[in-house]
Design brief:
The complex is a heterodimer of chains A (735) and B (156).
Chain A (H helix, E strand, L loop, with lengths): L1 H33 L18 H42 L3 H5 L2 H6 L15 H11 L8 H5 L5 H10 L2 H8 L5 H17 L16 H5 L4 H4 L6 H11 L11 E8 L3 H13 L4 E5 L10 H4 L1 H4 L5 H4 L1 E3 L5 E3 L21 E5 L4 E5 L4 E4 L4 E9 L3 E3 L3 H4 L3 H4 L2 E3 L3 H13 L2 E5 L3 H16 L3 E5 L12 H13 L2 E4 L4 E7 L2 E6 L4 E4 L1 E4 L3 E3 L3 H5 L10 E2 L5 E3 L2 E3 L4 E5 L3 E3 L4 H15 L11 E6 L3 E7 L7 E6 L7 H8 L8 H12 L15 E8 L2 E8 L5 H10 L6 H6 L7
Parallel strand pairs in A: 1-2, 1-8, 2-5, 8-21, 10-17, 11-12, 11-17, 12-13, 19-22
Antiparallel strand pairs in A: 3-4, 6-7, 7-8, 9-18, 14-15, 15-16, 20-21, 22-23, 24-25, 25-28, 26-27, 27-28
Chain B lengths: L2 E5 L2 E5 L50 H13 L10 H12 L7 H10 L11 H8 L21
Antiparallel strand pairs in B: 1-2
Helix pairs in contact in B: 1-2
The chains are: A alpha/beta (735), B mainly alpha (156).
């Protein structure tokens, strides 16, 4: 009945016009026929052609035919639709009811992480809205008593909604938890509507209710572990399959809003930052290591000083306050399983260990793992760090040499080196930088307990030769020697051969060094394997991915940590390989991934301890090739890392009992074999590194708790006429 | 008496305590309290809580992060005479959550920390040492609490 009304309404105006025309034409025709010669007055009907009766007749015929045609079409459509509807209904009623009961599970799970979708008002609402189109669409539709009752509402959103939700899937869309019966009816209604629409858009994706939800939710999907899939999911898939033919992909890809490639310090810092700023964020960390994120500095420092014989297993060390902690940032219970990431109510951080990312598709926003799994993302962080460099001569030297060489970086390297150090007589460390010197000192300390010979060789003149100005580097070298290390400076390795179960290192100047094991600490090669597939820029000067001041490589890709060559708005483009930088940049990347848009501004610092007497903290660009100004005070026994630890409680240096007595006499006067008179004058002080008269780097030498002042000076970037005045700010004489 | 020595491009100055007794004439640029780039403390200039503050450790980001945020927010904005007295439900929920992860939120430490705590994070934070440390110019805590020396045995 209603249909007729609407049909009539549409056709009425048309009918009216045409009927008027017909009538008028008929009249005229009649009139004209009767009174041919009567001149036709000016008042012509706009629709009537001026002309003779024959044309009029033709016209009548045309209009009449149109009317009839229209009527026939309308009739046919109505008939056809009702037939189609009937068929549909029959089909539905033949389908098992059980599909409805499964529904409640899905909406509850997908509802919480409800992301507003443009095409989708909340599921319960559609009731009314779906019905509306029936009226406003003005199309003949199958009759349905319930339809009348519904209010007329804007059809567009609902129509779009309907188009999206195709018949089979449409049912689930409506089912609210527990309201099975109503869902049933709603299902019918939706089906009804879709039947009505002249062209139910070929449903290629019979996806369930919250269509946008699965995008975020299907984190968990079949890809990762079908077994873990919730009970509702397989049902849904069954439903959708029974419905329209959707091309089900064989490799179901999973999705995560935040993807962090690499499981180191930068990645963890970013994860924490994201979780703090984006409530309920789901973060997936993918790492090729087999363990969750951990911190690296203790691997070459505190872990070696531990008294615990099982330290290689526990990986725990003592902090300044005597409390122990693990090198792992968080225990395993902090993380959630990757499979559960999609369904976790408040999100979480999941770590996928032992998986390497081999391909990155920047256009498709997805990555591929070495097991062919694909993961798509919204935002991605690359924190792949780096791989230790090796000397070419060692690489070419063959298997025998390689198996006696350690490239130190990871936990397993620490474990193996610890074992080696207990079983061999001589270890040689090649490299005079941070890592090499720290390991040399750590092993040197061990050598006092065993008869282990520790040798350190490097091309520079002294330890930290590329960082410290020469006078200080020399002073440091003496201290390292005191730790029991045999130093061979200005050493360039020519070849390494394995002979009689020992390694022979031939130097370019002719010296020969015989040792059992080599530790190569000659730098880090940033890991830019993904640059090729991702089409990301690699910096030619510093290596690493080139990113802007906000650490962005592309609009949704950030890079942090060792692998990032970033623009420091104060100090220029650089790449930093320190722990604190990984933390700072990781955190910044996390902030920017959650919309902060902050540039790299908070300057990171670094520190190193070389034995009980030498400890320093540094910030900025600390390159020994720059002109420096060092301001020193005469050192007292109190100015050692150890003393600083006990007093301020901020140092990380841990001392064993034996050092306590040994340190005091050493600090104040160290007789130097080279006879430099200023030997003991570099006890504590501040060293400024200058570039174009501006301070770009500062080392606090055995002076602690002053880093904020140093940071401020670098931040200001001012030209200071007298750096002694600036040094006064540090109160180096105070304790 | 200070002495100066040049070694190539490097200049070395030795100073005594008296040399440095007079106040410094070096000029530092004035700080802008509203600098958007600066790292912030626990409370932002706008009065909101900075969930990303290193001083909070992992409290806001862990499995109980949501409960923690709710409880602490409630406390922060509480206008009651006994601040936070209207937030008991939130704190209870948080405590319940934390009890489910004893590894992350060791229970015995909480009591200790509570006594040491004097800041707002009293009932919740375990990282009292960090919080107080973070406020002072402790060196190693500069950027982060994940450095070995600044953390308690377990972060949350």
């Amino acid at each position: 009945m209603l249909k007729c009304r609407t049909v009539w309404r549409t056709l009425a105006p048309l009918a009216r016009t045409s009927s008027t025309v017909c009538r008028q034409n008929a009249r005229r025709a009649g009139l004209n026929n009767g009174r041919l010669p009567a001149c036709v007055p000016a008042a012509h009907m706009s629709t009537a052609p001026a002309g003779g009766g024959r044309e009029n007749q033709l016209y009548v015929l045309l209009v009449g035919a149109t009317c009839v045609g229209g009527a026939i079409y309308a009739y046919r459509t109505v008939k056809g639709d009702s037939q189609r509807y009937q068929d549909r209904i029959d089909e539905i009623s033949s389908r098992p009811l059980k599909t409805f009961t499964e529904e409640p599970a899905t909406p509850t799970q997908s509802e919480p992480p409800a992301a507003p979708s443009p095409a989708e008002p909340s599921p319960p609402a559609p009731d009314a809205e779906i019905l509306a189109p029936i009226e406003t669409a003005d199309l003949p539709s199958a009759d349905e008593p319930a339809v009348e009752a519904s209010p007329q509402e804007a059809a567009e959103p609902a129509a779009a909604l309907i188009v999206e939700e195709e018949p089979p899937a449409a049912e689930p869309a409506e089912a609210r938890p527990g309201v099975v019966a109503e869902g049933h009816i709603q299902g019918y209604l939706v089906t009804l509507v879709t039947t009505i629409l002249p062209e139910p858009s070929p449903p290629s994706e019979p996806t369930p209710a919250e269509l946008t939800e699965p995008v975020a939710d299907s984190e968990s999907p079949a890809a990762e572990s079908a077994a873990a899939a919730k009970p509702a999911e397989p049902q849904l898939e069954a439903v959708t399959e029974s419905g329209d033919a959707s091309p089900a992909s064989h490799k179901v890809s999973s999705h995560t809003p935040y993807l962090l490639i690499g499981g180191g310090t930068a990645s963890f810092a970013a994860a924490r930052s994201i979780r703090a700023r984006d409530p309920g964020a789901r973060v997936l960390i993918v790492t090729d290591e087999l363990v969750p994120p951990y911190m690296r500095p203790p691997l070459s420092k505190e872990l070696w000083f531990s008294d615990d014989p099982s330290v290689t297993e526990t990986l725990r060390f003592k902090q300044w306050n005597g409390k122990e902690r693990s090198i792992y940032f968080q225990p395993p219970s902090f993380y959630i399983n990757a499979e559960e990431l999609g369904s976790a109510e408040n999100g979480g951080v999941a770590v996928l260990t032992g998986k390497k990312v081999v391909h990155m598709d920047v256009r498709g926003n997805k990555i591929k793992l070495d097991d062919d799994t694909e993961i798509s993302y919204d935002k991605c962080l690359i924190a792949t760090g780096g791989v230790p460099r090796n000397l070419q001569v060692i690489e070419r030297a063959g298997e025998e040499v390689m198996k006696r060489t350690t490239l130190f970086r990871k936990v397993e390297d620490f474990k193996s080196l610890d074992k080696v150090s207990r079983n061999v007589k001589s270890i040689t460390i090649i490299g005079g930088g941070f890592l090499g010197s720290e390991l040399a000192c750590a092993l040197g300390r061990r050598s006092t307990e065993s008869d282990l010979e520790v040798i350190q060789m490097y091309p520079e003149k002294g330890n930290m030769g590329k960082v410290l100005p020469e006078y200080l580097s020399n002073w440091t070298t003496e201290k390292v020697k005191k730790e029991g290390v045999k130093i061979i400076s200005e050493a360039l390795v020519k070849s390494v051969v394995s002979k009689d179960d020992k390694l022979e290192i031939q130097l370019k100047d002719g010296r020969l060094v015989k040792t059992d094991h080599i530790v190569a600490a000659v730098g880090l090669e940033p890991n830019v394997d993904l640059a090729k597939s991702a089409g990301l820029e690699v910096d030619s000067d510093f290596g690493g991915f080139r990113v802007n001041a906000e650490l962005q490589a592309r609009s949704n890709i950030w890079v942090a940590g060792d692998a990032a060559c970033f623009y420091d708005i104060r100090l220029g483009r650089r790449r930093v390989e320190h722990h604190d930088h990984a933390v700072v940049s990781g955190r910044l990347a996390g902030e920017n991934m959650t919309g902060a848009n902050k540039p790299y501004w908070h300057q990171s610092m670094f520190w190193s301890d070389l034995g009980p007497d030498v400890g320093y903290e540094a910030i900025g660009i600390v390159d020994s090739s720059l002109p420096t100004v060092g301001v020193f005070a005469k050192a007292t026994a109190k100015d050692t890392p150890k003393a600083a630890t006990e007093e301020s409680g901020t140092g990380i240096r841990s001392e064993s009992e034996t050092e306590h007595t040994a340190s005091s006499p050493v600090a104040s006067s160290a007789p130097s074999p080279t006879g430099v008179q200023h030997k003991d004058e570099y006890g504590k002080g501040v060293i400024f590194y200058l570039r174009d008269k501006v301070v770009v780097g500062i080392i606090l030498w055995n002076v602690f708790n002053r880093m904020p002042i140093a940071r401020k000076i670098i931040k200001d970037g001012e030209e200071h006429a007298d750096l002694n005045e600036v040094a006064k700010l540090f109160n180096i004489h105070d304790d | 008496m200070s002495s100066v020595r040049e070694e190539g491009k490097d200049r070395i100055i030795f100073v005594t305590k008296e040399d440095h007794a007079s106040p410094s004439s070096a000029e530092l640029v004035e700080e802008d309290p509203n600098d958007p780039y600066e790292e912030r403390g626990l409370i932002l200039p706008s009065g909101e809580i900075n969930w990303n503050c290193p001083c909070l450790g992992g409290m806001a980001s862990g499995p109980c992060g949501t409960e923690f945020k709710d409880a602490f927010s409630c406390f922060h904005y509480s206008k009651e005479e006994v601040k936070g007295s209207d937030c008991l439900e939130n704190f209870r929920a948080m405590q319940e959550c934390m009890q489910r992860y004893p590894e992350l939120y060791p229970q015995e430490d909480e009591k200790e920390q509570q006594q040491q705590q004097s800041s707002e994070t009293k009932p919740t934070s375990q990282d009292s040492a960090e919080t107080s440390g973070a406020n002072s110019s402790a060196t190693k805590e500069d950027s982060d609490t994940t450095k070995p020396n600044t953390d308690d045995s377990v972060e949350s």
